[in-house]
Amino acid sequence: MLFNVIRKTTSLSSELQSEVKKILEQYPNQEMHAELQKELQKLGSILMHVAQEEEFGRTYSTGQLAKFFGVSITTINNWIYAGRFIGVERSRRNKQARICENTLWISPTEERIPVREIVEIYEQKEKMGELSSPSHGGNLSRIRFIVETINYFEKRYAKPYQEVVSEKGNPDDSEDWIWAREGKEWKSLLKEIGDL
After folding, report:
1. 84 and 105 in contact (C-beta within 8 Å)?
2. Alpha helices of the chain — where are they, by DSSP H?
3. Is 58 helix (H, G, I), strand (E, B) or coil?
4. CB neighbours of 171 closer than 8 A, spacing ≥ 6?
5. Rounded CA gap, 64 and 144, in Å?
6. Residue ranges of domains in the chain
7. Per the CB 3.0–4.6 Å rule, which of 21, 75, 81, 141 could disulfide with 71?
8. pLDDT digit string (tens) for 56-83?
9. Computed over its alpha carbons, how large is the radius of gyration of the chain?
10. Cβ burial, residue 82 (10 Å; 0-12/13-18/19+)
């Protein structure tokens, strides 16, 4: 097990990896080796966790994603139900969703962006002090984003939301997956801007 972890998590040459394996197998019955084996197994489980995280990427809760995207948890959940996170589905309504950093998010302009990039942008802005908290004058960049996205939808459909709903129907019940996804987001953004 340890040999496989070393192989996955380091850039050791195959000759050196072979030597490590021989050393670990050389004295299996000695008392000291038993203690060493226990410690190596503990280290191995830690390294396996790190290796898995590197292989599959970090995962984030809906609350963490809401912070990174600058939206509400409800919006993140709406995006999950609308298929805006490619490959992420919820089997049970109240189950906590964990979304991998390698998951692609479909933006309002149909661009596919890895969640990792959104997190990196958030962390960079946080380091630069560009993020404003609601207690310090409101989140101006969030308001701009909402207004720009609503404008995008109004240009795309050439009408305000209510008129599009009267033509296409409620997005919650629509079989047109594009309208269902975009209509739900549009509706959510209108509600959010109305609540500010």
Report:
1. yes
2. 2-9, 14-26, 31-56, 62-69, 73-81, 115-128, 140-157, 161-168, 177-195
3. coil
4. 165, 179, 180, 181, 182, 183, 184, 186, 187
5. 21
6. 2-56, 57-131, 138-196
7. 75
8. 678 999 889 988 888 888 888 888 888 8
9. 24
10. buried
Q: Taking Cα atoms as reference points, which of 60, 86, 92, 83 lies closest to residue 73?
A: 60
What is the C-alpha to C-alpha distance for residues 161 and 150, in angstroms, rounded to an integer?
Answer: 9
Record the pTM: 0.44
Q: What token pair was written down for 186?
A: 């549009």
φ/ψ of residue 112, rounded to 5: -100, 115
Give the integer Cα–Cα distance in Å for 100 and 59: 4
pLDDT digits (tens, 9 = 90+) for 157-181: 999 999 999 999 999 898 888 898 8
Closest CA to 48 of 94, 4, 92: 4
The model's pLDDT over 103-136, given as tens digits with 9 standing for 90+, comes to 999 887 778 889 998 898 888 877 777 655 444 4
The residues, ordered by sequence, that sit 6+ positions from 90 with a Cβ below 8 Å of its Cβ are: 77, 80, 81, 97
Nearest to 77 by CA among 68, 65, 67: 65
The three-point CA angle 39-40-46 to 5° equals: 95
